[in-house]
Design brief:
heterotrimer; A alpha+beta (338); B alpha+beta (830); C mainly alpha (283); A: 338 residues; Uridine Diphospho-n-acetylenolpyruvylglucosamine Reductase, domain 2; four-stranded antiparallel β-sheet; 12 strands; B: 830 residues; alpha+beta; Aldehyde Oxidoreductase, domain 3; Aldehyde Oxidoreductase, domain 4; 21 helices
Chain lengths: 338, 830, 283
């Protein structure tokens, strides 16, 4: 049978107005249902006719999944809150600027106006082989086309690759890990609240999914505790183009200093592996040490230990080393004006 | 350093309209969204079609079963290769018959030569049904060997992209045919060291004493450079709508040319041009890819005939990647000798162009010609091979070949300046063409020459405006950042001659200017006709430009491509205006007595010099109708093209018909020139760089429309920058598939990738060989946009970082880490 | 529902990619069903075992008290292989039925252990063991015929006692050999598809279709092994087979069991001078 792409097949569109209705629909349709948030990932799959759900559950009409609320201990952001709202929200900007910075570097203004925070952290891998509809591991097959002697893998993983070498492309995910955010997930068996890093899944555990969401699961909200409010933040995203591009690598850190010493720190990178990586070894190594270029240098070296380059992505190793270094030791900005 | 403030440029001191900005006739529709592109049209009973694209890079359909698709409700017709007319011969304007190339590209094929090539088209009541029908088609392919990289197929036992071979072979008096070119194993020895192997070329030429040039050189550099294959990425894809009425086919499509597209359509449909009506009022960009339309437009036309209903073919962005054309990537090598003062003593150039599987793109040949003009080597040898591959077909893209030649040459110039301790502007300036500069190989012992060149003046102007000396003297390194400045020469062909101008002074006093130019976004469509109003002394508000529909009696017009329109059609407009003026004077003399020379035209009147009786243009038009004959178009000028004559005949009697062929003298070939300046800031810890400033100074002759010129100078510079900064194709070598198939995968530059304060300037020195003095500008800036960025990068990072474009942070970072160039030196499509 | 999963290759061909995973449950159910049927048969339908011939008391008296059956090397091989097999089955199929963990590395390491142990076994069995003892011979087939005839109530001569291995055991070995070789050969090739210590990853060693068939064969053999292992374990714990099972641990079986089940002409055990002592060398 011939293959055609770039034209959306028919499906049943369901637009629940409440979480309860959404859950009912998801329970009813189980694995036949596809959950759509902003659609920035979904439409890609749908119009290529690669993912062919019978039912599309569009969450955009559920008001309770939207909005940024101050809580007793921090802030709660509805999963369907648009990235541009996250970027512009005064509370986020003031206390959790790391997330605002990360969200502002996602894709392009149009995509940020449509894409949601929940969607950004839950998006699928952007590996061009996988996205072309090739039957790779991630698509349920038995091969990785990117990690072959001739695979074109410039944007692929340097760490924790396990058969699949795709990376997680989210910009907000490492920021949320650095802020020690909790993800609130509604499952058929009840509500679960988990640490941000536990939301993500590597290929060694499940090669076909990027996160713990299974049929019937719904990411409800992301809670950021006040623990790291107003800490010293660093976010940097490397990409080919200055807008509308996925990260080649990004880094997010939150640091608390006591005088010039690192009292506590959380740091994460993304686009280095199939899930955002919290660099716990780095955190442990620099905690209590002086916040200095030397500490940054050591941290960078530690961060890339065990990294394995593919044919075209060796640059990611010095890149990650240097981004981690800068996150801790700071950037030497140019002295000239422009 | 803050961007230099561009001085407010004033142009056209001696003109009322030329050199001035004005609201173009398509402006309102474009900014309000009222303009209708091909896809915006709807016709009663219209069907939609979708294409089945080849999943194999080279193969044959060995089994095809359409029954399930045809049985679907709503499916109206399926078009395959069998429904296409046989390739037709074509007759040139001069009456020479060109035999059809039976091995050329077809709209649909059962022997696909690249992944994504259209196999068949299904027409149905809607696109959804057509797509479902395609999924029901049972199709199997026989797989044939394929080649993506030119060097791969040139190897002795390398695969051939076509059953017949891997290159086009030219033969006298017959169409080109596909043949085999293989190099010897020993030719590939240099590849081990990252240098381009140089086996037997397809073509070569030379002039001057090459050996003496190298012998006398103070410095000889021998550099291999690889340039990217880049999609045109026009905003409007190759969408088309077609229907038939009374034996005529009506086609709505976005094409660069209006009049000149008919010839291609006629050939592809094997129909007389008079039976084809092309409607193309608005075109969403072409950059060469839609110069005279595109063969795929015949798919809806033939489907409409088969299904007996109008058919709309909307092309998706992904389909556009496959059929939308691209610039051929080059694997090139140049050996250049330099004297102590930087003057080039000799150039030995070798270019391999990746052509895709079909008709030969002229890039490889043009690269040598442009290098010979732009850098004026006293001795030069050029050798070239255009290699067929199983990658999407290439076509001309803004400065085809010229751009690649410049991009091969510029890094060498910059390296020479560093090694000879010369100023970069100085080394460009000293090698710049001047006046009637010679170019290309000698023919009958004589080399061709340019009409004029003021590139040195452009460098002088640019160096001052860019504050070049100050920038060079600044510190390079600060913190983790390093700064670099670069400069580049650039030029391209910029004009042709011999076309017709046509307008009617109507009895209401308005002037209807017939424009056969396509509306491809450059505004030349109306810009060139400002000359008519200028010559006649008529306010622009009284002129109506008629365009975009071949049933509207248009004159014979140049292809809206090759940067020729502004030059060619200001000449034709000038000729027609002079004809109109002459006719007005004659009508006045006939009406009031005296000789035509005693009358003057101006202020919407023809009047007796020194005062006296006058006719308004309205009155003159009425008189022209009364007089008939040549005055109202009943007797067309004998020397205009027969196409123009048909239009004149249709307009006859509607007013004073002015028409003329451009027969102005023209000594030399017209080129336009650009001096480009760029500044970059590179972060050594990430390899990421920002283009912080850019200036392009253009030598385009007389400036006609400053705003449109600025759009071209900077817009096309950005097109070139894309080649330096990230635009490319990537293939999977195992399956021969494009894997950078999405728009964002191919990374065309965005507005945030270029400096906010980009500047441009134009010398506004008239070209002496054309009456208005104007030359074209679409393509000349492209090479400079790329070259200046590359040279700024090597200024910042040295010569040991990159040897191919684009240059991304990965290249920079890995090379800096290793202390030597780390990118694969020759492999295509990485 | 097909027993294979198909995908469209990049070149537009339909290629199998692996077995449908419901076959795991089919294999488990088949194993369990065999177990139940066999247990019911043994409990309600099987008659007393009757043999013709066997060891005379005089012969028996010369036998050692413990009849050697499996050498240490053979036992080590068996248990290493068993451990590898269980590891392989669990790492392969648990993730498919919802128990997710990082399985690939354990799987291929166990696969390497299995492969090496099988290689050892082939060499060892060919050159150091009674190679033919595990292959069915004419007597086995004739006795099987007799047994079936008798079960059906027809008259047939009594079957003889077993050689070293009963026919079922031999057939089981044959099945294990076939499935084992299939998984091992395909599995070794599949190691080019993942990152291991041994060679650079090269998924393009074979064509898409060849690889697809290889995955299918690996899967089919794999699920067959589920059934075979269930059957094997079942027999190992059946009371009347426990002496055999025990012999795989301690290396020998009692003289009584030997005399009762085996034919000394078909499984020759060297007599010893003092049967109460020691044990003849095993094979």
């Amino acid at each position: 049978m011939a293959v055609i792409r770039d034209i959306m097949p028919a499906f049943q569109l369901l637009q629940p107005g409440t979480v309860a209705d959404a859950q009912k629909l998801l329970a009813q349709h189980d694995a036949d249902a596809w959950i759509m948030a902003g659609g920035m990932d979904s439409f890609d799959w749908l119009k290529d006719r690669i993912k062919r759900p019978k039912v599309l559950v569009d969450l955009s009409g559920i008001e309770e999944l939207r909005g940024i609320r101050a809580t007793a201990d921090g802030v709660e952001i509805g999963a369907m809150t648009r990235l541009s709202e996250v970027v512009g929200h005064p509370l986020i900007k003031e206390k959790y600027g790391l997330l605002a910075q990360a969200a502002e570097l996602v894709a392009s203004p149009q995509i940020r106006n449509q894409g949601t925070l929940g969607g950004n952290v839950s998006q699928d891998a952007r590996c061009w082989y996988y996205r072309a509809g090739w039957p790779c591991y991630r698509a349920g097959g038995n091969i990785c086309y990117a990690d072959t002697p001739v695979g074109r893998n410039r944007e692929h993983a340097i760490l924790h690759a396990e058969r699949c070498v795709a990376v997680n492309p989210s910009d907000t995910a490492p920021a949320l890990i650095a802020l020690d955010a909790k993800f609130v997930v509604q499952t058929p068996k009840g509500r679960q609240v988990m640490d941000a890093e536990h939301y993500f899944v590597g290929p060694e555990i499940d090669i076909t999914r990027m996160n713990i969401l299974r049929p019937g699961f719904l990411l409800m909200a992301i809670q950021i505790p006040s623990t790291w409010a107003g800490a010293q933040f660093y976010f940097e995203k490397m990409r080919d183009r200055n807008v509308w591009d996925f990260p080649l690598l990004n880094v997010a850190s939150a640091m608390k200093l006591s005088r010039s010493n690192i009292q506590d720190i959380r740091i994460a990178v993304n686009a280095a592996a199939a899930r955002p990586l919290r660099l716990k070894a780095v955190e442990d190594a620099v905690r209590g040490r002086e916040c200095s270029p030397a500490t940054g240098e050591a941290a960078g070296k530690l961060a890339v230990q065990g990294a394995v380059p593919l044919q075209f992505n060796a640059y990611k190793i010095p890149l990650m080393r240097n981004l981690v270094k800068r996150a801790i030791g700071g950037v030497q900005e140019a002295a000239w004006a422009s | 350093m803050p961007s230099p403030k561009s001085e407010m440029q004033k142009f056209g001191a001696k003109y009322k309209l030329i050199g001035k900005d004005y609201p173009t006739p398509d402006l309102y529709a474009k900014v309000t969204g009222k303009s209708k592109y091909a896809e915006d049209f709807r016709v009663d009973g219209m069907l939609f079609c979708k294409l089945l694209l080849s999943p194999v890079p080279h193969g044959r359909v060995k089994h095809l079963d359409l029954s399930k698709a045809l049985a679907m409700p709503g499916v109206k017709a399926i078009l395959t290769q069998d429904d296409l007319p046989a390739p037709a011969d074509s007759v040139t304007d001069l009456g020479v018959t060109i035999k059809a190339n039976t091995q050329g590209e077809k709209a649909l094929t059962m022997e696909p030569l690249y992944q994504g090539e259209p196999i068949l088209a299904v027409a149905a009541v809607d696109e959804w049904t057509a797509a479902e029908a395609i999924e029901k088609i049972d199709i199997e392919f026989e797989h044939l060997p394929f080649a993506l990289d030119p060097l791969e197929t040139l190897r002795p036992r390398g695969p051939n992209p076509r059953v017949e071979g891997n290159v086009w072979v030219e033969e006298e008096n017959s169409p080109p045919r596909v043949g085999v070119l293989k190099w010897k194993e020993e030719d590939f020895a240099p590849a081990k060291y990252g240098q381009l192997p140089m086996g037997k070329p397809q073509e070569e030429w030379s002039y001057g004493d090459l050996d003496a040039g190298f012998k006398n050189a103070a410095l000889v550099l021998d550099e291999t450079f690889v340039t990217p294959d880049t999609s045109h990425q026009t905003l409007e894809p190759r969408t088309a709508l077609a229907y038939w009425q009374n034996g005529k086919v009506f086609l709505h499509m976005g094409t660069q040319s209006t009049v000149q597209t008919l010839a291609g359509l006629g050939r592809w449909l094997n129909m007389d041009r008079s039976q084809i009506v092309l409607i193309s009022e608005y075109t969403g960009g072409g950059f060469g890819s839609k110069a005279t339309g595109y063969i795929f437009a015949i798919i809806p036309a033939l489907l409409a005939k088969k299904a007996n209903a109008p058919v709309m073919m909307r092309i998706s962005r992904e389909e556009e990647h496959f059929i939308g054309r691209a610039r051929p990537g080059f694997q090139g090598r140049i050996k250049a000798g330099f004297a102590k003062d930087g003057r080039i003593t000799a150039v030995d150039m070798y270019a391999i162009g990746n052509n895709g599987p079909y008709d030969e793109a002229g890039d490889v040949g043009a690269s040598g010609e442009i290098v010979s003009l732009l850098y004026q080597p006293p001795a030069m040898r050029w050798r070239g091979v255009t290699v067929l591959t199983n990658t999407p077909p290439r076509g001309p893209q803004s400065a085809p070949g010229g751009m690649q030649g410049i991009v091969m040459m510029e890094p060498i110039l910059a390296k020479a300046a560093r090694q000879l301790s010369l100023d970069h502007v100085a080394i460009h300036r000293i090698n710049s063409p001047e006046g009637k500069a010679e170019w290309g190989p000698a023919s009958n012992g004589k080399r061709a020459h340019a009409t004029s060149a003021f590139l040195k003046e452009a460098f002088d102007r640019g160096a001052e405006q860019f504050r070049w000396k100050e920038r060079v003297a600044q510190p390079k390194r600060s913190g983790s950042k390093v700064r670099g400045v670069g400069v580049s020469s650039s030029c391209f062909f910029a004009g042709s001659v011999g076309y017709d101008g046509l307008f009617v002074i109507r009895p209401d006093g308005r002037i209807a200017i017939q424009s056969g130019i396509g509306n491809l976004g450059t505004e030349s469509l109306s810009d060139v006709h400002r000359v008519v109003a200028e010559v006649l002394g008529v306010p622009w508000e009284k002129c109506d430009v008629i365009w975009g529909n071949t049933s509207k009696n248009l004159p014979w017009t140049c292809v809206s491509g090759g940067s020729q329109t502004t030059h060619a059609m200001t000449r034709a407009a000038h000729a027609a205006a002079m004809d109109g003026k002459q006719k007005l004077q004659e009508i006045a003399a006939k009406t009031f007595g005296g000789t035509p020379e005693q009358y003057e035209v101006g202020n919407e009147k023809v009047f007796r010099k020194g005062g006296g009786r006058s006719l308004t243009l309205a009155q003159a038009a009425q008189r022209a109708i009364q007089l008939g004959g040549k005055y109202d178009g009943h007797e067309p000028p004998p020397d205009v093209n027969k196409y123009t004559k048909t239009s004149i005949a249709a307009l006859a009697g509607q007013g004073l018909v002015a028409a003329a062929k451009d027969k102005y003298p023209h000594d030399g070939q017209s080129f336009s020139y650009v001096a480009s300046f760029a500044e970059v800031e590179v972060d050594l810890e990430t390899g990421k760089y920002f283009l912080t400033d850019y200036l392009a100074v253009a030598d385009v002759g007389t400036v006609i429309h400053p705003k449109a010129l600025s759009g071209q100078v900077l817009g096309r510079s950005i097109l070139g920058m894309g080649h330096a900064m990230g635009q490319k194709w990537v293939f999977d070598p195992q399956y021969g598939h494009t894997i950078s198939r999405r728009f964002y995968h191919t990374k065309p530059p965005t507005i945030l990738d270029v400096p906010t304060g980009m500047q441009w300037a134009a010398l506004d020195i008239p070209d002496p060989e054309t009456p208005v003095g104007a030359r074209g500008i679409g393509e000349p800036p492209v090479g400079g946009g790329c070259g200046a960025v590359l040279n700024a990068l090597s200024d910042a990072l040295g010569d040991e970082v990159f040897r191919r474009a684009p240059v991304n942070l990965d290249t920079i970072l890995t090379s800096l880490e290793a202390g030597r160039p780390m990118q694969e030196p020759l492999t295509a499509f990485i | 529902m097909g027993i294979l999963e198909w995908a469209i290759s990049p070149l537009g061909q339909n290629v199998p990619i692996h077995i449908a995973w419901f076959l795991i449950w089919v294999a488990v159910i088949a194993g369990m069903a065999f177990l139940v049927v066999h247990a019911v048969y043994m409990r309600y339908f099987a008659g007393e075992k009757e043999f013709a011939g066997g060891a005379t008391p005089a012969q028996a008296a010369q036998l050692p008290k413990r009849v050697p059956r499996h050498s240490l090397a053979a036992r080590l091989f068996h248990w290493i292989m068993a451990a590898a097999m269980f590891t392989l089955l669990f790492t392969a199929f648990l993730p498919r039925v919802g128990v997710q963990f990082d399985w690939v590395t354990y799987h291929w390491i166990a696969g390497v252990v299995l492969t090496l142990s099988i290689l050892f076994h082939i060499v060892h069995a060919t050159f150091y063991m009674d190679f033919w003892s595990i292959w069915p011979d004419r007597a086995d087939l004739e006795d099987a015929r007799r047994r079936v005839q008798r079960f059906l109530g027809r008259t047939a001569a009594l079957p003889r006692k077993f050689a070293k291995y009963p026919l079922e055991n031999k057939l089981y070995h044959g099945a294990i050999l076939l499935t084992g070789l299939a998984v091992v050969v395909t599995g070794v090739c599949m190691m080019w598809r993942v990152r291991t210590l041994f060679f650079p990853r090269n998924p393009y060693l074979f064509s898409d279709l060849t690889w697809g068939l290889m995955y299918v064969l690996h899967g089919l053999a794999g699920v067959s092994l589920i059934t075979l292992v269930i059957v094997h374990v079942y027999f190992a714990v059946r009371p009347e087979k426990l002496p055999i099972t025990a012999s795989m641990i301690v290396g020998s079986m009692s003289r009584e069991f030997y005399v009762q089940e085996h034919d000394p002409q078909r499984w020759v055990v060297e007599p010893v001078l003092d049967p109460e002592q020691g044990m003849a060398d095993g094979d």
